[in-house]
Amino acid sequence: MVAGEISAALDLPPTNLSFHLKTLTRAGLLSVTQEGRYQRYRANLPAMLDLVAYLTEECCAGHPEECTDLSELSGCVGGACAAAGPEAVKP
User: Residue 49's domain spans which residues?
Assistant: First the structure.
């Protein structure tokens, strides 16, 4: 999505959003490409899924079954998102 679309969808001022997008990009959770005057951000789904798996394992003290099933909440049932990869993300 283009930064302006993200800002409008989340009802965040562009300056606040810019800070967060830059941080997520540095962390490798987003990629950004320049398209004329706009910057298009794309989610790095494999990295995000790895992060969720790590947090589930670590935050649940080795008992991920006690944590909320985040894959169902995210719509990534059955590992479909992991198999799709970042190229499957529509801009």
Answer: 45-88
Tokens of 69: 């099933």
The pLDDT assigned to 53 comes to: 85
Are residues 9 and 36 located together in one domain of the fold? yes
Mean pLDDT of the residues in the chain: 78
Per-residue exposure over 27-46, b if at least 16 CB sit within 10 Å of its own CB, e if not: eebbeeeeeeeebebeebbe
Question: Which residue bears the tokens 């794309």?
Answer: 42
**What 3-state DSSP class applies to 1?**
coil
Tokens, residue 78: 């059955």
CA distance 5 to 9: 6
* Distance, CA of 36 to CA of 39 (rounded, Å): 8
**What gap in Å lies between CA 7 and CA 25, rounded to an integer?**
16
